[in-house]
Structure formats: structure tokens, C-alpha cells
Amino acid sequence: MSATSGIPSFTGDASPYGGGDPYADYRTADFPFTHHVDLAARTLGAGVIAANDEFFAQRENLLVATPAEFDPEHFGHKGKIMDGWETRRRRGSGADHPWPTADDHDWALVRLGAPGVIRGIVVDTAHFRGNYPQAVSVEAASVAGAPTPEELLSGDVKWTTLVPRTAVGGHAANGFEVTSEQRFTHLRLNQHPDGGIARLRVYGEVVPDPKWLATLGTFDVVALANGGRAEDASNLFYSPASNTIQPGYSRKMDDGWETRRRRDNGNDWIRYRLAAQSEIRALEIDTAYLKGNSAGWASVSVKDGENGDWVEVLPRTRLQPDTNHRFVLDTPAVGTHARIDIYPDGGISRLRLFGSLTEQGSARLSARHAESGE
User: Fold this and answer.
1) What are the C-alpha distances in Å from 269 to residues 37, 59, 234, 242?
2) Which of 276, 232, 239, 234 minimizes the C-alpha distance to 257?
3) Across the strands, what pairs with 187?
4) Which of 70, 80, 179, 284 has the CA that lies 20 to 30 A from 223?
5) Are 42 and 65 in contact (CB under 8 A)?
6) Ramachandran sector of residue 195 (left: φ over 0; alpha: ψ -120 to 50; beta: rest)
7) Cβ count near 275 (within 10 Å)
8) Alpha-carbon span 208 to 349, nearest angstrom
């Protein structure tokens, strides 16, 4: 246990796989930062753009959304097939020194799906029991545009250490809290000296480029990719509320938000924080793939500021299953927060609030962008 952060530290081998549930002896913890969005999610456009070695298992596995799978009998021409990123064993310079040096390590470059301030990182070594790295480190950089791997590694880019070289454990979720307030676009994940990592999760707050949003004019002011976030919800039994502001359309039922069945006269809701103070002019409520369990009715409210009053901008309206509903507001609504109430329960797949930043919202977002190092 770390004395400064209170985050459990897992080191050393896990026991060899003995059969049964491969996750039965998996080591993990409730990390304090996982309520933030995963900035390295493929749904946001993240990617592993390069690695120095991926002999046993491909680098792209690091960002797969689902937990790593394990098949004890799955072998290929190069050896055991692992669901993660795994490099070959490093060797020394010769027979007189067959061991790798202290500086030897493998690396992978990750482009974040949305630039932002990172609050915590999880380096997951699930199923890597005797073949995980001895230690890991993580560096971050902020580079505009779409740099190539060669440009990122050229020596002209400033890299900031977020996780210093730290011993980790096998078959464990190794969590690290990050305190930097800088906005980053890329990560360099290092494993010392070699080994395998199943998954990488990078939790933080999206900080969009205000110039880009200003150029767009009208955009979805609650979308994750634009800096919106789900702050709270009445029920998260089946799926996270943040699914409702993911990019694109829902692809299956669990790609939205669904609550458990109510047995009272209440209703369910999600509260959101917008990218910044915005003027909302139109909205969409999508129930795609929710057919026998979509919400029956919905209303939307907006408030301006933490202490503002909620103002209903869409009265309680009947929803149809598996349908995208569009509404143009008679009067634009100005606010920093939004809330959708569904009646009595069920779910929606997406909420989209179309508008633009107010002068005040644009100024505040520009100030935050500047404070985070841009």
C-alpha cells in the first residue's frame, strides 16, 4: 500500500494457473479515479500507433474495451497466444553478460482518443503470471495535429513522466494516481526490461481545443469528445451513464444506458456537465437497440452554474423503442449542466445537445486550455 496515495500496490508473480476461473485469483482494487472517462478508449479514437517489439502478442490488444481473455490451450507458431501486448525476452551483450542492462526496456506509443488532463492510469497484467514486466513507467506529451511515431521519437518532443519506473505485479490491475494538470495527447508506455501487459486504461477529463469548437459553430455540447461528462445517475445497474454521450450511434443494447426495473412510483435520471456554458438549440434522445426496455417518457432540464435552478426545456415526452427522437427548442436554453429524466425506468442509448459556447463559456474553456499547458 502506498503511504501517499492509499492505492494498493501489487508486486511479484501470481500463482501459476491451476484451472477453473482464470480471474479467481486476480488482484485489483477500487481506484479513486475510474469514474473519469477513459481517454485511451477506442470509441473515442485512441490507438496504439507504434511499439518497438510485439513478437508474442500485438500492441493493439492494449486498448481492447473488454477484459483480457485466457485460453490455457491456445498456442501458435511463436508460442502461447496471450490477449495483450507481449514482447520477446531480452538478452544481454554476450556469453559473459547474458542479462539485459538496467536501461533496457520495451515501449509502445499511444495516441489518446481525446486530449485531456489525466487523473489515473491502470496497467493491467491480467493472465501474465510469470511473463509480466518487472516494472513499468509512463510518459506523456502534448503534440498538436497528427504526428508520426518518428516525429514523436525524434527528440524534439517534451515528454513528462507521469509514472516513474515502478515495480508491478503479475495478473493484477496496477493503478497509479496522476497529479499533473497538463493537457496531454500521447503516452509512451514502457515495460522494464520486457514482458507482457494485457490492458491500458487512462482515466481523465477531456479538454477540447476551443478554437476547433469555435470553428465548428454548432456541435454536441454534452458529448464526451467535446468535454462533456456524466456527473451522476440514479441507477447504473446494467451500464454506465457515460455511454449516452459516447461518439456515434449505439451498436447494441449494452452500448447505451439501462436501469433495473423499478417497483415504485419514482423515475431514473442522469445529470451531465457540459463542455462549458452553452446555448442549446436542439436535442436528440436515441433509444437505439432498446426495444422492450426503452424509457417510456423523457424530459430534459438545464441549469446555469452549480447553484442555478433547473429549467425544463423539453417537457415529459413519449418515446418510441429503437428510435432516434429529434427536437428543436422554441427558445434556446443557456446553461452549464443538463439532466435527462426517464419515466419510469428503462434506458436510452444517446443524448445529444446541439448548440454552441456562449461568450462566457468560450472564455472559460480557453482559460482552462491555457492553464493545462497549451
Assistant:
1) 19, 38, 5, 12
2) 239
3) 110, 140
4) 179
5) yes
6) left
7) 29
8) 23
3-state secondary structure 107-163: EEEEEEEEEEEEEEEEEECCCCCCCCCCEEEEEEECCCCCCCHHHHCCCCCCCEEEE
Q: Which of 339, 76, 327, 62 shows the shortest CA–CA distance to 187?
A: 62
Task: List Cα–Cα distances, 342 to 246, 271, 283, 287, in angstroms.
Answer: 19, 12, 15, 11
- Amino acid (1-letter code) at residue 196: G
Place of cell 476547433: 212
- pLDDT at res. 5: 60
Type of residue at 59: R
- Whether the ω angle into residue 344 lies within 30 degrees of 0, i.e. cis, is yes
Strands (E), 207-250: 219-220, 229-233
Structural contact between residues 292 and 321, judged by C-beta atoms closer than 8 angstroms: yes
| pLDDT higher than threshold 50 for residue 87 | yes
Q: Which three cell numbers stand for residue 122?
A: 491502470
Q: Which class for 85: exposed (0-12), middle (13-18), buried (19 or more C-beta within 10 A)?
A: buried
pTM above 0.90, yes or no: yes
At residue 225, the 3 state secondary structure works out as helix
Helix, strand, or coil (residue 306): coil
158 phi and psi, to 5 degrees? -85, 120
Tell me the CA end-to-end span of the chain in Å, nearest whole number: 35
Bridge-based pairing of strands 183-192 and 79-80 is unpaired
CB atoms inside a 10 Å sphere around CB 99: 11
Pairing of strands 297-303, 257-258: unpaired
Q: What span, in angstroms and rounded, lies between the C-alpha atoms of 130 and 18?
A: 14
Please state, rounded to an integer, the average pLDDT across all residues of the chain. 95
> Phi and psi (nearest 5°) for 282?
-155, 160
Q: pLDDT tens-digit profile of 201-240? A: 999 999 999 999 999 999 999 999 999 999 999 999 999 9
Helix (H, G, I), strand (E, B) or coil at 277: strand
Q: Which cell numbers hold the place of 293?
A: 426496455
- How far CA 331 is from CA of 87, 248, 285, in Å, comes to 58, 27, 18
Within 8 A by CB and 6+ apart from 153, the residues are 109
Which neighbouring-strand residues pair with 70? Answer: none
